[in-house]
TrEMBL record:
Domain of life: Bacteria
EC number: 2.1.2.2
Pfam families per the UniProt record, alphabetical: Formyl_trans_N
Described purpose of this protein according to its UniProt entry: Catalyzes the transfer of a formyl group from 10-formyltetrahydrofolate to 5-phospho-ribosyl-glycinamide (GAR), producing 5-phospho-ribosyl-N-formylglycinamide (FGAR) and tetrahydrofolate.
Protein name listed in UniProt: Phosphoribosylglycinamide formyltransferase
Ranges of residues in domain Formyl transferase N-terminal: 9-187
Pathway: Purine metabolism; IMP biosynthesis via de novo pathway; N(2)-formyl-N(1)-(5-phospho-D-ribosyl)glycinamide from N(1)-(5-phospho-D-ribosyl)glycinamide (10-formyl THF route): step 1/1
Molecular function GO terms recorded: phosphoribosylglycinamide formyltransferase activity
Length: 223
């Protein structure tokens, strides 16, 4: 099957793009049977755009500062995304709260990764908050996006231990290793037609996931 016949992906970023790189690598080595058609950033000059350029992927900036309000920016962003006719829109460190119109437009084909075990620690500074609370476990979650902040049905969670000498940066690095494992896996499932959202519920291999899949750092992932 040629690349033109593969599911198309648009990745939205705001920063360094480490999860973008994990997706680029997974497409390149065949783990993701899809094509990243475009990378769009709401901020100019970020490292994620350089990653896309090195991979030969179309990349562009739609700067939120060029638009008068959130609705106007999201409308421009939708136009930019739809020019590439994606099957899936992936938020990879995209630091914007999206409007209901945007979320509705991509319902069932819009996913995000968040550095916590949702619903715990929605929003920012997740690692600092986890350490302050003294939790024994932390991690990341991949979820379909709805109109709630870091809300929507969770597909998979990867859990890491919180160690006595952890700092926010050390814990973040441990969590990020798992992000780079599970995000390409979820995109793989979607591109294979195995992952869908139906009536607000996650379905994988035609079975409803009543609770998110749970993996540990050493858990082999489904091929």
């Amino acid at each position: 099957m040629g690349a033109a016949a593969q599911p198309g992906i648009v990745v939205l970023i705001s920063g360094s793009g480490t999860n973008l790189q994990a997706l680029i690598d997974a497409v390149k080595d065949g783990r993701i049977p899809g094509c990243i058609r475009a990378v769009i950033s709401n901020r100019p000059g970020v490292a994620g755009l350089d990653r896309a350029a090195r991979a030969g992927i179309h990349h562009e900036v739609i700067n939120h500062r060029d638009h008068g309000d959130r609705e106007a920016f999201d409308a421009a962003l939708m136009t930019g995304i739809d020019a590439h006719a994606p099957d899936l829109v992936v938020l990879a460190g995209f630091m914007r709260v999206l409007t209901p119109d945007f979320v509705g437009h991509y319902a069932g084909r819009l996913i995000n990764i968040h550095p916590s075990l949702l619903p715990a620690y929605r929003g920012l500074h997740t690692h600092e908050r986890a350490l302050k609370d003294g939790v024994e476990g932390h991690g990341c979650s991949v979820h379909f996006v709805n109109t709630e902040l870091d809300g929507g049905p969770v597909i998979i969670q990867a859990r890491v231990p919180v160690l006595r000498d952890d700092t926010p940066d050390i814990l973040a690095a441990r969590v990020q290793q798992q992000e780079h494992r599970v995000y390409p896996q979820v995109v793989r499932w979607f591109c294979q037609g195995r992952l869908t959202l139906a009536d607000g519920q996650v379905r994988l291999d035609e079975k409803t996931l009543h609770t998110p899949l749970q993996v540990e750092a050493d858990t082999p992932l489904d091929a």
